[in-house]
Each structure stands twice: as structure tokens, then as C-alpha cells.
Amino acid sequence: MTILVTGSAGHLGEALMRSLRAESRWARGIDIKPSAFTDMVGSIGDRAFIKQAMSGVSHVLHAATLHKPHVATHGNRDFLDTNVGGTLNLLEEATAAGVSSFVFTSTTSAFGAALTPAAGEPAAWVTEDVLPVARNIYGVTKLAAEDVCELFARKSRLPVVILRTSRFFPESDDDHDIRSRYSPENAQANELLHRRVDISDVVAAHLLALERAPAIGFGRYIISATTPFSPGDLAEIREDAPAVVERLFPGAGALYAERGWKMFPTLDRVYVNERARRELGWQPRYDFRFLLDCLRDRREWRSPLALDVGSKGYHDEVFAEGPYPVG
């Protein structure tokens, strides 16, 4: 049983390859860039290359994509060719090869403008039932790729699971205000409350999806750390998030102060992973409670896998604002 991993030189692709190799599972990594985890170098936009890469493959983990930080450096056609055309090539060749499961890595960014409530409204409670409103070409193409995946699941009976992952990258935030007010570690710790997930938990979700896809047929799931909030907290976290956090986790503020950290004053959304936990049997470990336990015990709060993969950036060029070409 060979598992094809696309984007094997990227954050998630490398994490998947590391994990599969550690379990001595047959895995073939493909990417446009050579790496220690890339077995075949080529583009998912090249149908002939994908046909060759699919030989002997039983399962597909499709993580390759152009990301949001590429919006400023790549054209719309690049996004269509990679995110939609590349996914179509993989689906067609996976169907022809009779693969047993196809897992597509999507993004919570696909929800787009639906994530931002109007002024004075409570924070958004984001489940899989929220209707996306794409904000840019990245969101448009990820949603289009999801639709093509669903089409193949319905028409070709290809077992497909879509995982809308929240943030797991270690790079600084792409928002200038966040970068100027919070260290990357502080900001990412805060995000575990509502919009971040450790890459180790992301890998676990993908491997569960790979196994369960044949029984599910087609499914779409949010993959984010389990939030401590409930719908009853949404109005208050939009007004005073630190007060809610301290109520739920007495002493959290003191632990933050010891590190010179501060909580975001308000939160505008909460990603809800309940369906993934229920239907995939996913049990994410790295949540905000785990973070606080680590701070209390002076332990590392990120997973060993996250530290091993490290920071990769999104471009070969280094920009004035760090990994991003615009602020």
C-alpha cells in the first residue's frame, strides 16, 4: 500500500512524510522542489507527471497548493492551474488508478468574509455549515477544488475527505498590526483558543481521514484545536477576551505575564472541530489547556514534529516584512 503525498517539501507535506516514514509505511512524496522528503520532482499541473507518480498508489494525501502569501507574487492563472487544475489532475488519475481514499487539504481561509461579524455582533461560531464567502483568489480556488473533489466523490465514487485546516505555520503573522504588537510565539499561543492547530494534530487528522474515507464516502471537516469557548461566550470574547480566558482558566494571565505575553483583547471567530472529533475519531492534543500546562511546568508547548519541520517560508526571496511581500 503506497501513499502519495503531494507538496512533500512544504510544511504539511514534510510532516506527513516524516510521520509515515517513522511508521515504516510506504509513502511517495512529490513536489516542484527537491527535498529530503521528495521522491519525485514535478508539478501537479503536469498530467503526465501525475500519471507516473500515481503508479502503484493506494491512497492520496493532497497537500500541495499555492497559499495566501502567494497572492501578492503569483497571478490568478497560477492559482487556477495549481489549486484547481492540479487537483483535477490528481482526482482523474486517482480515479483511473482505483485508489481507496483521497484526502484534500483545504483551509479555513475558504470561509473568507463569513468570518468577520459586523461591528457590535458576537464572534462568529464557525462550523462546516457556515456558507463561505471567498475573499481572494486563494479562497476562490480552494473552494473550487473542494467542489471538484465533491463531484468526483459523487460521480466517480472516489472516497474523498476534505480537511479545512486552521493555521499551523510557524512564520510571523501576515497582519502588520499583529506582528508589531505580539511576538510570533505569543500570537500563535493566543490562536490556540480559536484559530490554530499544531501540525502534529493536523497529521493525525489526515491519517484518520485516509483510513475512514471509504466508509465516509465524502466528508468535509474543520481541523483546528478544540476551543474552550461555547456559543454563550461569543458576545463577551468580542468585547473582552482576556476576561473570558481568565474565567475559564484562573491564573492564565499570571502565566502569560511571566513570559511577557498578552492576550488578544477581542476575538472575532471560533473554529469548531466537533464534527471531526465525532466522525473521524480525531483527538487533538495540543490545545490551549495543554499550552497553559506547559507554561506552568516550563515545558515546550509545541509538538516535536512542529519543531522538526520548523519554518519554511513561502518564497525563495526574503522580503522586508519577513516571509511576506506586503504588510
UniProtKB/TrEMBL annotation:
Native species: Rhizobium pisi
Start and end residues of each NAD-dependent epimerase/dehydratase domain: 3-212
Entry keyword Metal-binding: no
Regions annotated as coiled coil: none
SUPFAM superfamilies the record matches: NAD(P)-binding Rossmann-fold domains (SSF51735)
Enzyme class: isomerase
Name by which UniProt lists this protein: NAD(P)-dependent oxidoreductase
Residue spans crossing the bilayer: none
GO MF annotation: an example: UDP-glucose 4-epimerase activity
